[in-house]
Structure formats: C-alpha cells, structure tokens
Amino acid sequence: MQAQAPAQPTPTAPRVAETVEVVATRLPEVPHDVPAAIEVLTGEDLRSLGATTLKDALALATGVDVAPGGDAGPAGSVPEFRGLREFDAFLLVVDDVPWGGAFNPALTSLSLRDVERVEILRGPAPVTYGATSFVGVIHVVHNAASANSRYASAQGGSYGSGGGAVDLALPAFGGGWQSRLSADVERQGFADDRTSFARGHALYRVSKGAAGNRTWTSVDLTLLAQNPASPHPREGTALSPLVPLDANHNPSGAFVDENRVAAAFGLERPIAGDTTLSATGSYTHSAGRQFRGFLTEASDPPGNATGFRENIDVNDVYGDVHVALPERAHVRVVAGGDLLFGNGEGRGATFDYSVPLAGDTAVSVPEPADLNLDAESRRTFVGGYVLAEAQPAARVRVSAGVRLNATVERRGEGESVTHVRPSGSVGVIVSLLERGPDHLKVFADYRNTFKPAAFDFSLAENEGVLEPETSHSYEGGLKARMAKGRVDLEATAFRMDFSNLVTATVVDGLPALMNSGDTRFQGVELGGNARLVHGVWARGTYSFHDSTFVDFVQAFDGVPTQLGGKRFEMSARHLASAGLVFSPERGVTGSFVVKHTGDRYLNKRNTALAEPFTTVDAGVGYRIREYEIRFDGRNLTDRRDPVSESELGDAQYYRLFARTLGVSLAVRF
User: What are the angstrom distances between the C-alpha of 472 and each of 35, 135, 136, 424?
Assistant: First the structure.
C-alpha cells in the first residue's frame, strides 16, 4: 500500500478589509456604496510603495496625475484631475480641515507621515465642502491620537538628500487624554543647479473618548526653506534648445521659504437621543518669503530676466458644525453650516537683471529694499447645507444634497464683491448582483458647483475680483467586486462643463490670472485592484481625457483669437499606470510601478505638441522582525519631459525631476 503524502495547507484568501471615506457625506461609508468616483488608499498601501510625496502616493490612483515641483517650489506639486492641471482647481483636506483655507492648497506643508488613509474624490464636492472644491478632493487622514504604534526611520539618497522621522504614542495623561507625536526633518536635493529644499515638520494630537463621543485637538508646524528651480522657456513648438537641461536662472541666494502653524480642534457628542453633533474649527498662520527670478526671453544678456521679492502673510479661520440625524424609514440626514475666512497680504518689489542663457552661473542681485507693491485679499465663504441618503429598496440608494453659498471678497482697497448662489448634487447607486462579498453596482450622479476665482498674490496690476467659476458635471459608471472579494473594479464616464474657468496670463511681464470663457472636460476612467495573496497586490488604471475650449477668445500678439475646439493646455488625453506590490510581514518586500502620460499641447493655440513618456519607479527591501531596509529608485527611465506650466512667465515649463536613488531604514517598536 502506497503511503500518502502529507496534506499541504490550503492557501487562505486575502482578507477583504473594507476602507471607509468621509469626504463625500461627512459620514463613514464604504466607497462602493457611494454614487461617486471615490478611491481610498491605506497608510499600509503608501508604506508598501515607499511613498513619501504626493506624486508617489497617487502614482496608481485612477484618473489623477501629479507633477512634482512647480511655481510653489521643489517641495510642491501640481495635481491633475480629469484633464485639468491647475494648482488651485482641487481641494486639499487634512484631518477634516481645508489645507490652504480660502486661498490655494498648501501642498508644500503636506506631510504623509503616520497616515491612516488618503481619500480621493474625483469631481467636485459641492455640498460637504462647498465653494472650495471643484474638480476633485484629496483628504489625508492621519492616525488618531489613540493609536499605539511607534515607528522611526532614517533615509539618504541622491544629490545630498537625507532625513529622519519618528511617530510616537505618548503616555496618557489626566482624565483619559491620549496623545501622539509625529516629527520629521529632511533635505532633498535635485539634479537642477542650486535646487533643493529642507523641511522640518511636527504634528501633535490629543484626544479623549471614542467615535461618537470624543474631543480632539492638534497642532501642526512646518518650517520650509527652498532653493527654487527655474522653468524652461519654450521657443515656437518646443522647449528652447539654447537652455541646458538643469539650468537655473534664479539670482544667487534665491529662496522660497515658509513657516506655517495650524491649530485645530473638534468634538462629537450625542444629543437628543441618537442624533450626533460634530464641530470642527481651525486657525492657520502662514508667513512666506520669496526672492526669485525667471527668464523673460530666451536670449543672452542684458536685461533678459525679471525677478521679484515678496513677503506673504496669510491667516485662515475655518469652522464647521453639523448634525447627523438617526436613520428613519431608511433615510439618513446630515445638516450643518461652515465658515471659511482668509486674509492675506503680500508686499514686494520687482526688478530686472541679466543672467547667462546657459543658467550655469549664479548672478548676484541685491534684494530690493523698498517693497512698494502690494497684493491683498480678504475672503469670507459661508454656507449652509443639507444632505440626505435614502434607501427606497433593498438594492437602491439615493443621495441628494443642496447648499447655499454666500461669498464676500475684497482685493486691496477696492470694493467688496458679494455672490450668493446655490450648489448641489444628486446621485443613485443600484446593486445589480450580490453574492457573498462579491457585487456589481451601477451609479450615476449630477453635480452643480460654484467656486470663487483663485487669488495668487501676484504683484502685477491686474483686475480686481474675477468672476466666480461654475460647472455642471455628469457622471455614470459601475463598481464591481469579484473573485470572493479579491478583485475590485471601477469604470466611470464623465462630462464637466465649466464657465469662467481661471487660467494664467501675463500682465506687464508679471504673472496674473484671468477668466477663460467656457471649457469642457469629458472622458472615461478605469481602475482595477487585485489582492493576490497576503501581502501581494496589483493595480492598473487607464484614463481617456478630452479637455477642450468651447468658447474662449484671447489676444496673441495683439490679435484676438478664438480657441473654441482647441485642447486644453498640458492635458494628456491618455493616462495609464500599472503596479505590483509585495509587502509580507517578513522577508523580501518591493514595488514596481509603470506610469504612462500621453501627448499634450503645451499652449492654448495647440501649436506645440509634447511627446508621450513613460516612467518607472521600483523598490526592494527586506523585513526581519521589527526592522526593514529598503532601496528605492524614482524615474528610473530618467525622463525630463515638461509636466507643468509656470505662471511666472509666458511659455515656460517645469520638467520632470531627474532619476533619484535612495535607501531607508525603519523600525517599529
């Protein structure tokens, strides 16, 4: 009789861990139950990718592309949602607080340390966040003060880069208060001449109680010093061959520095039975200093560059109070109101200087002593909102909300401009199939959005308050889960019609903003995620974006030109990404990400077409007990394509950063 081989253990399927989001409704919900395109990345996903920047974190996000750097400095980034790459077109939220307040998203001070999850909503949030969300929302949620994990890391890499960080659970103190501290310092260098940034950051959180009955507060501090890069000028249909790849035309000692402190608090309380009251408030102060310059023409000296020196101080106040009523007859209601106030003032001066076209020599330019120009804005956004979710049938969920926006703005000593306008949304999601953890759902929604025009603290003497931006957006798609919960798929088709979209222009050689008539953004976005075995997952995405001017006239060389039918500048029609991640608790770890960006026009007249490009990021590491060592390479193909347009000068672009290599050592304790 033949002996039987010992039975092999049956591999277990990966556990389906549901994520939740709050950005769409302010209530914790599973993204597959919401009639909107929402994606959630966990903190473990980010650690598996070795992601420390927004570009790396969102490398596999559907329909989103993030260009590093930009006018905000090398620590900044410029996200693109649905074919619109504008620094201020989306809303950044950190722990329920608009990060950047009534002005622009504060991306340079964003920390991805100790993150619990990142929620990505494509399209606007016209009810919950009102007059500041337009084409998308990124919500970064850090671990709660009650989290008890401890983590420390150190890293080093190309161009003199390095740093260290700790995330600590601190001892509880009187009355059941729990606290947590995250702190990090880093220096990042780049291939571009005289380009780097150094940043110190700390986030302290305290809380008491549990969900539904808790109080919390936090303080976030960022100290940032940047040596900025230069945008690369375009001549005709391509970037100028007269300017070397890593040229820097900033004056010697150029800087873009910022010190920022944000204090926030919040509470949740049960009132009147099962009703929950939630309140959030924050105050932020930012002090920025800039001394920089840029080419005004691609020629040798004299007088081929313009610079400016500016101090910018911004104060923001945010408050939200809302109640979540208990479910009655399969209906849930959230009602509340919020206020966002911002006061910002910039004082500066401009100057002309001469710099070698090669940009290989730092030119000493004295800083202007008389800051005789100013840019000031005071903005108040107030809104009241009601959002209802109903389940009229077992497999049908309807969501509808309305908001009344009131905005008051004043620029400098000019008159205040007031706008009162409603916005809202309605959506439905229907489950066509449910079988255990698997399902197939279809959804559709409509969103009507209102957003006051951006303010950029330009020293140019341009017009006062611009007309507000408005949009109508339509969206439909499906959400599927299959293979016993191992595979998630989402497909979305959308159309967004914009009026008065704000775009960049130049006034007297200095950057300014203007309204751009009517534009249309439409397309299809596909994303899929597969959890293969424990610790191994794969993801792929594809997006087709058709972004065009519908009716917009702009003067070029004094000649009015109708741009109707032209593609929106810097908008790639095709975006695709694919990634494989293996992140077991012990042993070899790693990630491999390929991202493709299709062709895009560099200018509004569509005469300069940039070629497609593909980048590769990869990392490999090893975990033993509580330790992990990891090696990462970014942009291994070393592509240096133009990825974002500068608003400093006419026809100038930032290139993708050069290849970087790094090593990190982390320990959990």
Answer: 16, 11, 14, 10
In a domain, residue 14? The reply is: no
**Distance separating alpha carbons of residues 655 and 258, to the nearest angstrom:** 23
For 58-91, write each residue's pLDDT tens digit. 999 999 999 999 999 999 999 999 999 887 789 9
3-state secondary structure 291-305: EEEEECCCCCCCCCE
- Residue 118 bridge partners (DSSP): 41, 140
Segments forming the whole domain that contains residue 335: 31-668
Q: What is the pTM assigned to this prediction?
A: 0.93
Beta carbons within 10 angstroms of residue 624's beta carbon = 9
Query: DSSP label at 175?
Result: G
Q: Is the pLDDT of residue 508 over 80?
A: no
Complete DSSP assignment for 96-113 = TEETTTTSS--GGG---T
State how beta strands 331-353 and 373-393 pair: antiparallel
**Cα 669 from Cα 664, distance rounded (Å):** 17
Q: What is the CATH number of the domain that holds 489?
A: 2.40.170.20
The confidence band for 225, taking pLDDT boundaries of 50, 70 and 90, is very high
Element (H, E) at 540: strand 536-551
Evaluate whether 639 touches 623 at the Cβ level (below 8 Å): no
Q: How far is CA 528 from CA 49, 122, 370, 431, in A?
A: 17, 16, 56, 19
**CA–CA gap between residue 482 and residue 494 (Å, rounded):** 24
Residue 641's pLDDT is: 97
Is there a contact between 484 and 504 (Cβ–Cβ < 8 Å)? no
Q: What's the number of domains the chain is made of?
A: 1
Residue 484 has pLDDT above 70, yes or no: yes
Q: Is residue 138 part of a domain?
A: yes
| Residue 214, both tokens | 């808790």
Any domain includes 145: yes
Q: Where are the beta strands (DSSP E) in 109-160?
A: 115-122, 136-142, 151-157
| 195-224 residue pLDDT tens | 999 999 999 999 999 888 999 999 999 999
Whether 402 maps to a domain, the answer reads yes
Nearest of 499, 442, 455 to residue 473 by alpha carbon: 499
